[in-house]
Design brief:
The protein is α+β, with helices and mostly antiparallel strands. The chain has eight helices and four strands; from the N terminus they run ααβααβαβαβαα. The chain has one domain (34-179): NADH Oxidase. The model is unreliable at 1-10 (pLDDT under 50).
């Protein structure tokens, strides 16, 4: 069983190993979603490619592979377009990430037939991406608070391609780098989840 830990130094990057009811893989136990990223740190291209490759090899219904990605490095026009679409607190902190990855679901095939499981399969792909990234020393924070129409217009997406989420990816930084006290408090707060028993509707 792992235990939740936090470093005592206010300037340190918090360690947030999950408290689990059974042992799980260390990468899964240690994965968390920071808001503070090293603003001057460029992305390690090999690690970014590995994360995207992990997403490519995620399972999908009938191997339909409906996950698509818009990858934008900090300083690019694409990054600025994505940053401008962010809402609320996301607009405050996310710009320090090295990369934005927009998760896009292809919800219909070339013949216009709906892909019922497209968003589910995109979620699996992004889960694979997040685990690989954390394994390689990167962090990700997935966001739903963004203007979907701004992304659709900014990247000329057809109706069959639906932006679902934006992932900030990079190297975690000290909470002290965050510009807002509320954000710093959230960064240092322990991770929490519902008890496993509360999630099991049936467990015979």
């Amino acid at each position: 069983m792992t235990t939740e830990t936090l470093t005592n130094s206010p300037s340190a990057i918090p360690a947030k190993t999950a408290e689990t009811s059974a042992p799980i893989h260390p990468t899964l136990a240690e994965r968390w979603s920071p808001r503070s990223f090293e603003a001057a740190q460029p992305i390690d291209e090999a690690k970014l490619t590995a994360a995207l490759e992990a997403a490519r090899w995620a399972p999908s219904a009938a191997n339909s592979q409906p996950a698509r990605f818009i990858v934008a490095r900090r300083g690019s026009d694409a990054f600025a377009t994505i940053a401008a679409s962010l809402m609320g607190f996301n607009a405050v902190w996310a710009g320090s990430a090295s990369v934005f990855v927009v998760g896009v679901a292809e919800v219909a095939d070339a013949d216009g037939k709906p892909r019922r499981w497209a968003e589910y399969d995109l979620g699996q792909a992004l889960a694979h991406l997040s685990v690989q990234a954390h394994h390689d020393g990167l962090h990700v924070h997935q966001m739903g608070g963004f203007d979907v129409d701004a992304i659709r217009t900014g990247f000329s997406l057809p109706e069959s391609l639906v932006p679902v989420t934006i992932t900030a990816l990079g190297t975690a930084a000290s909470p002290d780098a965050l510009p807002d006290d509320t954000l710093r408090t959230r960064e240092l707060a322990p991770r929490t989840r519902l008890p496993l028993a509360d999630l099991l509707l049936t467990n015979e």
